[in-house]
Design brief:
mainly alpha, two-stranded antiparallel sheet, about 200 residues, globular
Length: about 200
Amino acid sequence: MAADLSDPKTALRAYLQGTRDDLIWKLDGLSEREVRLPRTTTGNNLLGLLKHCLNVEAGYFGPTFGREFPTPDELVPMAAFDEDPQADWYAREDETKDGLIDLYRRVGAFADETIEELPLDAPGRVPWFRPGTQDVTLQRIIIHVTCDLARHAGQADIMREQHDMAIGLRQDSSIIPEDYDWPAYVSKLTKLADRFA
C-alpha cells in the first residue's frame, strides 16, 4: 500500500527514504574498487558519497535533537575533521561497501525513530550551524537533509552514468527513453553549443 502523502510527516519521510534508496542503488553491482575509485578532480566517489550522507543523517537526527546513535564509534567523529577535513568522504581500508550500506540502513532507521517520536515543530539545535541560525525544527531538518541527500544523489547519478551508463530516476522507473541514439544526441548538442563559440 502506498504512503498517504497528504500527511506532511509521511510525505517528508517518503521523499527522504526515496533519496536514501537512490543513493544505495547507485552502488548496486559495482565492485569495492569501482565504488571507491575517484570520479572527479576533487576525489568524489560513490562509496564516499554514501559514507558522507550516513554521517550527515546521524548528526542531524541525533545530537540536533538530543539523541545519540547507538554505536557512535561506527561514525566519523567530529575530531577527525581537524586532522582530515575530508574524513567522511571516503571509505577507509577496513570499511566495505556492504558494511557501509548496512550502517546507512541502520542510520536511516535511527533517523526515522527521531522523525516518528517528535512532532514536526519539535525544537532542535544544530551546534555546527553559525550562531543565530542554530535553532531549528524537525520539519526544517527533514527538508534540509532531504535536499542535501538529493544533491549528492545527483552527483551519484552522474558518476554512475560516466562509469557504465546506469541511468534513470529510480531502479524500477528510469523515465529515460529506451533505445535512444545517445551518441547522435550528444553530437547534436555539441554542434548547437559550438555555434556560440
